[in-house]
Amino acid sequence: MIALILAVLLICVMVLLGVVVYLGIIRPGQEHAAATATAQSATALARSHQTATAVAQANATATMTALQNNPSALYSYIVAQSPQVNDSLSSQSSSNWDDTLNSDGSGCQFNNGALHVLTTADTPFWACIANALTYQNLAFQVDMKIIKGDKNGLQTLAGLAFRFNEGTRSFYSLLISPSGAYLLSKFTDENFTPLSEGVSDAINSDLGQSNTLTVIAQENIVMVFVNQHYITTVHESNLSSGQVGLLALSTSKTPTDVAFQNLKIWRL
Fold this sequence. Notes:
Layout: H1 2-67, H2 71-79, E1 85-87, E2 107-111, E3 114-119, E4 125-135, E5 138-148, E6 156-165, E7 170-176, E8 181-188, E9 191-199, E10 210-218, E11 221-226, E12 229-235, E13 242-250, E14 256-267
């Protein structure tokens, strides 16, 4: 009987020792190994995602570079992508547009499904800036209609601004007129420098006509398109980044009303 009890106790001790060994040595080792494997898998997954992102960015950059000598193909490639900003301009948005009027009636106003830029005889130039949008390389596109102004010559001009920097009072602008002219220029501390200008059949001339303006700014290269037609390319590197905006200008002080809609921006 004693021998049987001793045998049972020995078996119990052996079982207990086995549990202790499992709980104290084997299981922690297994848990550590599992945790290590999980961490390694997570790290590998993160690295794989980073690699895929880097490859995608590298491929996109390579495509952009390859297409720089073919502006129309570059335009088609960019607008086929999903834009980072797609703003109807029918009302205030996360872009945080200027939307106030001055006492003389000039300024920025959302009205009838569009953002209007207004000038008067006393305020012949005005810009509406998207305060939440800052870019270096971008494609910037907007639909524009000059509703009111002088349709002769370059008396009335309207369009878009990019790489706008309020601190240095500098920006690039693309403007067109109801007479069918275009002007790509640079402003730096109130100094005006024309970069490219001319007349294009691609521009829908006269008041009340809709035109789609697009600029592609990639490092020191700026390409201009109107109504999906390539207009010109300039090489200009003085201004590297900044905000975007919408402009109206009257050189004859004729009051103007310019309506903007369907703004899109692709970060390049």
